Amino acid sequence: MKKQIFTTAALIGAMIVSIKAQTYTETFESFSLPNNSFYKDTTGADWQTANAVFRYNWNNQWSYWSEGMAYTNVNDSTNGNYSNLYGCIAYKGYSNSNYYVTGQNYATIVLKSPYQIVDGFYITNTTYAAKVMKYGNSFSRAFGDTTGTGCGCPQGSYPDWFKVTIKGYKNGVMLNDSVEFYLADYRFSNNSLDYIVWNWQWVDCSSLGSVDSIQFFMYSSDVGPYGINTPTFFSIDNFTTSGTAGISSYSALNTKVFPNPVKDKLMIKISENGWYKIRVINILGNTLEEISVNGTIHQPIEILMTNYETGSYIVEISKDNLVEKHLIIKQ
Question: Looking at the structure, do residues 280 and 144 belong to the same domain, yes or no?
Answer without folding.
Answer: no
